[in-house]
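Reminder to self: keep the SMILES exactly as supplied, no canonicalising. Ligand is zinc ion.
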Amino acid sequence: MKNYWVNKHTDTNPHNDYEVHTESCKYLPKSHKTFLGRFSNCQSAIEKALKEYSKVDGCKTCCPDCHKY
Ligand SMILES: [Zn+2]
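Structure tokens returned for the bound complex:
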């Protein structure tokens, strides 16, 4: 299980997505982030994020299985 966060800075990635990160990711920002919850995989974290944000993508570095764009 890992803690997942969503980055609310949508202008920091090329597709302006809300990027999902694990707690230990070096790309997780210090501010403007929202805690999603504790999940066993990134798919569950993405699912949760999609309830609040329309454009969601997994971080290429910490969530490669969920990185699409
Ligand atoms: Zn990340």
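Points to follow up:
The mean pLDDT is 95.
The beta strands are 2-7, 18-22, 33-39, 56-58.
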